[in-house]
């Protein structure tokens, strides 16, 4: 079958031939892939920078997507860490790691939105007890996941959402999605009294924001939940030890591992429903899978979705 094939961590995938998939386990099924998103996680696994990279080549990237099963029903499926991902004409899914979709869904929209939407949805639902009326600061709010986080925090009843980033014009556009305020990382002190931080950047910007925020916090005994979700600005962050002592700061992470597969699966139908119903603004760009090598490093505000 035709697929995107990675042969080394330092080279983009090439469109070529890959052996057709075979279902082995009791719950496995060969499916037709309709749409699969080029998420940061996909790039990071293929270039070896993600903690779940296996280093096994050849590798077909793609961690999730919309598929047609053998009964012609549509499903959203998440794959395990194996070498055959979704950037192919066919894939093998574990039916237990998939959710049925209505037959009138837009596969590209679902494939674009599920991974970015899941990031804040799971963090707020499964890593803390988020309550209506709480306030949220989003670090790295201008990306696909941050844009979703603005909308999802509001959906879950956030009273105040502050969007932080480095690009003023992209930040300004977040007001129409529900952001109450926008700030640079250095201006995080303006959100000093938030209850929750959703952190997509880590690295230097997070450390800068954490120090500014803690210093300016009026009630340092009030709980501050800092949820580490992405590391687009650096895998490590020079967090000053004082911030951990000077405020009631609790840092945790949210991702595959810290949220169990069962918990993820329990949330997927509601996320898919919200996306399908048009309740979340989604920016998606369908691209033929044959153009994977060119599209791999493209700079775009839209989430690229490969269509075999
Ligand atoms: N744990 C999870 O469940 C989960 C799920 C989804 C995503 N993530 C992670 O979250 C992160 C963001 O993902 P995404 O889907 O939003 O990616 P994306 O759509 O490609 O957006 C990238 C974002 O990162 C910002 N950025 C890039 N380099 C930066 C830097 N050096 N300093 C500050 N900001 C920088 C960009 O800001 P500009 O607008 O200024 O360019 C943009 O807002 C990634 O690390 C991804 O792996 C985690």
TrEMBL record:
Which Pfam family is one of those matched by this entry?
A: ADH_zinc_N
InterPro entries associated with the record: ADH-like_C, GroES-like_sf, NAD(P)-bd_dom_sf, Zn-ADH-like_protein
What positions does the domain Alcohol dehydrogenase-like C-terminal occupy?
A: 146-263
The protein here is known as Zinc-binding alcohol dehydrogenase family protein
Organism, by scientific name, is Actinomadura keratinilytica
């Amino acid at each position: 079958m035709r697929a995107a094939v990675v042969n080394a961590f330092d080279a983009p995938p090439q469109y070529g031939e890959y052996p057709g998939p075979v279902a082995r386990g009791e719950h496995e099924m060969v499916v037709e892939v309709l749409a699969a998103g080029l998420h940061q996680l996909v790039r990071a696994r293929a270039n070896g920078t993600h903690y779940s990279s296996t280093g096994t080549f050849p590798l077909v990237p793609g961690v999730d997507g919309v598929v047609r099963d053998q009964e012609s029903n549509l499903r959203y499926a998440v794959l395990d860490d194996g070498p055959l991902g979704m950037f192919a004409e066919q894939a093998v899914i574990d039916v237990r790691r998939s959710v049925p979709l209505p037959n009138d869904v837009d596969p590209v929209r679902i494939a674009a939105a599920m991974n970015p939407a899941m990031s804040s949805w799971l963090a707020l639902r499964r890593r803390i007890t988020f309550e209506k009326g709480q306030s949220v600061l989003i670090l790295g709010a201008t990306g696909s996941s941050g844009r979703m986080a603005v909308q999802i925090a509001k959906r879950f009843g956030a009273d105040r959402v502050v969007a932080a980033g480095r690009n003023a014009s992209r930040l300004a556009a977040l007001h129409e999605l529900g952001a109450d305020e926008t700030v640079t990382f250095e201006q995080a002190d303006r959100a000093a009294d938030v209850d929750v931080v959703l952190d997509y950047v880590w690295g230097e910007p997070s450390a800068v924001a954490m120090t500014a925020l803690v210093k300016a916090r009026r009630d340092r005994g009030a709980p501050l939940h800092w949820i580490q979700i992405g590391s687009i600005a650096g895998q490590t962050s020079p967090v000053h030890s004082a911030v951990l002592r000077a405020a009631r700061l609790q840092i945790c992470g949210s991702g595959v591992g810290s949220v169990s597969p069962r918990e993820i699966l329990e949330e997927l139908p509601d996320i898919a429903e919200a996306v399908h119903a048009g309740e979340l603004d989604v920016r998606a760009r369908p691209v033929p899978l044959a153009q994977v090598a060119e599209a791999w490093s493209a700079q775009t505000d839209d989430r690229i979705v490969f269509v075999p």
